[in-house]
Amino acid sequence: MRKVVEKREIYFSPGGENRRLHLYLPQGYEEGRERLPVLYMFDGHNLFSDRDATYGKSLGLGDFLDAWCKRMIVVGIECSMDDYTRVHEYCPFDIHSGIYGDIAGRGEETMRFIVEELKPFIDSRYPTFPFREATAIAGYSMGGMLALYGVLRHNRYFSKAAVISPSVLPAMDAFRREIDRDALSADTRVFMSWGTNEYGPMDAQIERSLFELERRMQQKGASTYMYRHEGGQHNEASWEKQLPVWMRFLWF
Questions:
Q1: CB neighbourhood size of 65 (10 A)
Q2: Torsion of CA 222, 92, 85, 189, to 10 degrees
Q3: How high is the pLDDT of residue 1?
Q4: CA nearest 77: which of 29, 35, 113, 31?
Q5: For 104-159, what is each residue's pLDDT tens digit?
Q6: How far is the C-alpha of 81 from the C-alpha of 54, rounded, in Å?
Q7: Tell me, what's the pLDDT at 99?
Q8: What is the pLDDT of residue 31?
Q9: Could you tell me which residues are beta bridge partners of residue 23?
Q10: Any idea of the CA torsion for 127, 131, 133, 139, to the nearest 10 degrees?
Q11: Angstrom distance (rounded) from CA 172 to CA 97
């Protein structure tokens, strides 16, 4: 018997519409009194099934967890299928840049939905450990940007974050201010990664920027893991290869 990937609708209040959740529930989760840690992830439709994935290739997260040693629940939150809306909902800051243009960031609204509405919903219906030490957040690309913001601004809810190929360049000043203003618990763990074949000439600049953010978070007491993915591209096939690295760092 394998895991269950359950799909259910939830009202996404920042967007005023229903969104689909993709929930990974390990074998036998409904039996006994076992409590499980929870990982919240963005772009939920790209996590488990190639049939659901935007570009026909998922992250393969369900297959990975089926064979992995730690049992957990994963809550995949489907994004807007409109790329323009997705960028605004995943960006936590107002940004004016040549890369993305003008963005009126609604990422804080998305995060408040997660911590004030979605997390209580999950904790009330599934056998979770609700406290922060057993709660993580993860995402890639724009979702990686929001995962980083989430573990900083909402550190009392999340003790761990996987920040995969994050789109941080246009928001560096904002992230500097965010790290300076936020208190981080000493048990906070942040994984950050980038591929060497993602953006061409900008790859080196992204690498320098992530190391700067790492230094700033370490000064606030967080533990970090930086992963330079040689030949890594900006897609699910590359990000799937990083799963064993960041899952091990966050949970062990």
A1: 21
A2: 10
A3: 44
A4: 113
A5: 999 999 999 999 999 999 999 999 999 999 999 999 999 999 999 999 999 999 99
A6: 9
A7: 65
A8: 80
A9: 6, 75
A10: 70
A11: 11
**Secondary structure, 3-state, the chain:** CCCEEEEEEEEECCCCEEEEEEEEECCCCCCCCCCECEEEEECHHHCCCCCCCCCCCCCCHHHHHHHCCCCCEEEEECCCCCHHHHHHHHCCCCEEECCCEEECCCHHHHHHHHHHHHHHHHHHHCCECCCHHHEEEEEECHHHHHHHHHHHHCCCCCCEEEEECCCCHHHHHHHHHHHHHCCCCCCCEEEEEEECCCCHHHHHHHHHHHHHHHHHHHHCCCEEEEEEECCCCCCHHHHHHCHHHHHHHHHC
Q: In whole angstroms, what is the distance from residue 84 CA to residue 17 CA?
A: 16
Distances from the Cα of 174 to the Cα of 93, 171, 190, angstroms:
7, 5, 18
Q: Quote the pTM value.
A: 0.96
> What Cα–Cα distance (Å) separates residue 116 from each residue in 49, 196, 204, 229?
28, 37, 38, 35
Is the pLDDT assigned to residue 101 strictly greater than 90? no
Q: At what angle do helices 83-90 and 142-153 cross, to 10 degrees?
A: 20
pLDDT tops 80 at residue 98: no
C-alpha–C-alpha distance, residues 53 and 120, integer Å: 27
Interval 86-95: pLDDT, tens: 999 999 999 8
Residues recorded for the chain? 252
- Both tokens of 96, joined, read 């004016």
